[in-house]
Amino acid sequence: MKFILLASGAVLVLIATVSAERLGNAVSVPLSRRVLNEEISSTASEGRKKLAYFGDVTIGTPPQRFTVVFDTGSGNLFVPGTECSSVACQFHRQFTEFGSTTFRPSVCGTYEGKPTDRMRIQFGTGFMEGKCVQDEICISGLCTSSNFLEATAESSKPFYHFTFDGVMGLGLSKMARTKDFSLMHQLSSRQKLKQQIFSVFLSAQEDETSEVTFGDIVREHMASELFWVPLTGVSGFWEVKIEDITLNGHKQGICKDCRVAVDTGTSMLAGPSEIMSRLRSLLNVANNCNYEEMPKLGFIIGGRILSLNPSDYVSRTGWGCRVSLMDMNIPPPSGPLFIFGIPFLERYYTVYDEPNNRVGFAVAHHKGQVPEVLLRPMRRASNSRKLSWVRSHRQMAATMSLRCNHLPKSSSPSSWCSPSLVAVTVSLQRLHRLPSRIERSMGLADGWLLAGCWLVAGWLLAGCWLAAGWLLAGCWLAAVGC
Prior knowledge:
Cathepsin D, subunit A, domain 1; disordered N terminus; alpha+beta; six-stranded mixed barrel; single chain; elongated
């Protein structure tokens, strides 16, 4: 509550206004990274790396600790229970109902017209059966009462091989069994969060801490602007539109109006088999594993190219290099759909905002690395040479500015960050924006013609001023001589 004093003549008026700020907190959950190298006998991807990021939650009173994958591709929390006799459950921590004073039974829904507390979830390579229960769930000290699934049976594949105990679903609330099973909905509806969002920062570097932040955006994890993209609202995933796919910034025209789900629980990049096959042919990855000869693979989202380096989409094996793009044919109406998994999320910081139906993207800031520069796609491949010098100088200027902003002063050579060089790079950026702005408003050819006219006019004007200056100086010298 805020109080504002307004003076009207000699009378003071006291007005009470309600603050627009939400009550609540923001907490971050540190994540651990696990790499598992497997050889998969498929033409889609061989020798690819399987990755997982997981953190801790507690359930019950007193708290029972579990490690879970924070998964934007599912909607429910599940952990093994003491009733589960499957081998996968026995090798992980199990929830003990009688060990919690806040435990309550719950229902999953109705089956054949009768309430039931049992359900089954099918995963890509396995299943989980469980019963619906309710208890106090806490993440980094932030607690709420929520429904979850206590597993009574788990398939050995993949759960037996996991070092984590369960899965925390962070998908849209409609992906949960009901909203009572959605942790984000429970936290938001009870005003536990500073903002009704969560954000994800993943890093493969040992000197950085990956984390999921509930209730806020961590600006220190961003090396670029944060831009928002609306959800398509088709599949129920955190799904946005792909406008096209690019190689080294050039549109390929192979993915018009595609859709992609941003999924923290998937270790790979996946997509429809037909498009993935065409991509592999275009990438033409050689067995010599020379990354310098391979193109950047980009996806146009929100008018910007989100690029992956060859090391992000190529895996090394004993036989050479293979493209790490997995075929995944999701049938309509949810599909066809691409999946952006961990390789993408290690390069881009993401923010998830369900109340406003949008996902935010920014280049992730990693220690000691020069960050990517968000670029707009080139209009036509035939014009690439004409634009190459402007784009290269523009990217050079932006990159050098980002070096100065993000690298420690102790590791930033004075030749990079001197005031004169920074001034030059800013001037380059301003100069190079002119053709792009004209390009967007008038078209490529007309834009460059007009830009050329402006440059010629500028040189002519400069020449006239120079000639006038020399003439004036000559007259003055002649007058002094007389």
